[in-house]
Automatic annotation (TrEMBL):
Domain of life: Eukaryota
Record's keyword annotation contains Transmembrane: yes
Name of the protein described by the UniProt record: Uncharacterized protein, isoform B
Family membership: Belongs to the SLC13A/DASS transporter (TC 2.A.47) family. NADC subfamily.
An example molecular function term from Gene Ontology annotations: succinate transmembrane transporter activity
InterPro entries: SLC13A/DASS
Chief location of this protein within or outside the cell: membrane
Record membrane topology: Multi-pass membrane protein
Localization per Swiss-Prot or TrEMBL: Membrane
Membrane-traversing stretches: 18-37, 93-114, 135-151, 247-270, 349-370
Keywords linked to the UniProt accession: Membrane, Transmembrane, Transmembrane helix
Gene Ontology CC terms: plasma membrane
Length: 422
């Protein structure tokens, strides 16, 4: 009897250990059920909507379900609870806001695919200088610039390999301690050493810089696009339209330039010994500055190893620049944009972005096939790749982010239906 009791406890413990997500998926709706019952009994749609929001929030916090799956719960419960028509609700999961976001991700993958981001980063860092503090400022400038045009997570993911390669070179050339010593931060045998404060500044800095850069443009982060979508839906008759140009001109001076400057100063003070020349970190930086010439030589060599810009990189750089020009000049506000010159339906930002997306999937990485057309050798034995591979996009684009944006936008029809206009 005792053995059976012990076996039952063992099985129950394993169930709770390995299947806790399934259990929480049942517990959370049960705990929030009183809100739903109150809404059903009183026939108040506000409480039904509140139940769905609270349940989704708890699901996201606990990650009982994958966050992308949780974002799809409104598709099930909004029609069932009579909150929003299914057709109108599904439209919110593929609005122009989401299309623009996906287009920006695809262009970002094109930059990564041809390794253009590495060339840009090395060029900027070489211009700024080779001391640790100047390297940090250069990395922050490049990261914030990337954050203007691509999502925060994608920009940080693109910059991490560059920072890792830079840190590896610094460690190999003994510019400054990349890792903490055993005395500073003891670790168990076999465990990797902890990064030093200076190393942490580089990695944490690119995350901050990409996030701040994302505040500057509509496509920099999904939140800005959601704001634009809610504004356009809530105030359809407003004479003030939020365009790519006016949003950028208002946001970049304060939200980007001022914030990134403050963050750089804070990191230089807290992690790189600025104004503290006698501190341990300050002494390390002073010693590293003596090897500045060596670091500049290393960066120069890495830049030279990339070789001259090839046709692939040149085309992607032109496509990226053209996308920026198309987004800014679509409807700048202070002069007629190209969308105003088209006497058709309203043209959104998605048209400009996907014009570029179409080109980078259609154009080849090189144009040697003109030689083949003229019958000149050498002849190719395989098809020429496009500027961006669709297989690469399928493997690397986070499609679930579209669902997360949709989960913001589903609230718009619900809100406008039950809350009177202001």
């Amino acid at each position: 009897m005792a053995d059976q009791e012990a076996q039952r406890k063992f099985v129950l413990g394993r169930c709770c250990k390995f299947h806790w997500r399934g259990i929480i998926t049942i517990i959370i709706p049960t705990l929030t059920m009183p809100i739903l019952l109150h809404g059903l009994l009183s026939n108040m749609a506000e409480y039904k909507c509140l139940w769905l929001i609270v349940t989704m929030a708890l699901m996201w916090i606990t990650e009982a379900l994958p966050i992308y799956v949780t974002a799809l719960l409104p598709l099930i419960f909004c029609p069932i609870l009579g909150l929003v028509n299914a057709d109108k609700l599904c439209q919110q999961y593929f609005t122009e806001t989401i299309v623009v976001f996906i287009g920006g991700l695809i262009v970002a993958l094109g930059i990564e695919y041809c390794n253009l981001h590495t060339r840009i980063a090395l060029r900027v860092i070489r211009i700024i200088g080779g001391s640790p503090r100047r390297l940090f400022v250069g990395i922050m400038i490049v990261s914030s610039f990337m954050g203007l045009w691509i999502s925060n997570s994608a920009g940080t993911a693109m910059m991490c390999p560059i920072v890792k390669a830079l840190i590896t070179e610094l460690n190999a050339n003994n510019i400054f301690p990349v890792y903490m010593t055993q005395e500073e931060e003891p670790v168990e045998e076999g465990e990797p050493p902890h990064p030093s404060k200076i190393t942490i500044a580089f990695y944490a800095g690119i995350a901050y810089a990409n996030t701040i850069g994302g505040l500057g443009t509509l496509i920099g982060t999904g939140t800005n696009l959601v704001f634009k979508g809610i504004y356009s839906d809530r105030f359809p008759t407003s004479t003030v339209e939020i365009t790519f140009a006016n949003f950028m001109f208002y946001s970049i001076p304060v939200m980007v330039i001022l914030n990134i400057t403050l963050v750089i100063i804070c990191f230089l003070i807290t992690h790189m010994g600025l104004f503290r020349p006698k501190s341990r970190t300050g002494l390390i930086i002073s010693e590293a500055n003596k090897n500045r010439k060596l670091m500049e030589d290393v960066l120069r060599q890495r830049h030279i190893d990339l070789g001259p810009m090839n046709c692939h990189e040149i085309q992607m750089a032109i496509a990226f620049g053209s996308m920026i020009v198309l987004l800014i000049t679509r409807k700048p506000g202070f002069f007629p944009g190209w969308s105003d010159l088209i006497d058709r339906k309203v043209v959104g930002s998605s048209a400009g972005i996907f014009m570029i997306v179409l080109l980078i999937f259609a154009l080849p990485t090189q144009y040697t096939f003109f030689k083949y057309c003229c019958g000149k050798a050498p002849f190719t034995a395989q098809a020429i790749d496009a500027i961006l591979s669709w297989e690469y996009v399928l493997r690397n684009i986070p499609w679930g982010l579209a669902f997360l944006l949709g989960r913001f936008l589903w609230f718009r029809p619900t809100y406008s239906k039950y809350v009177p206009s202001i």
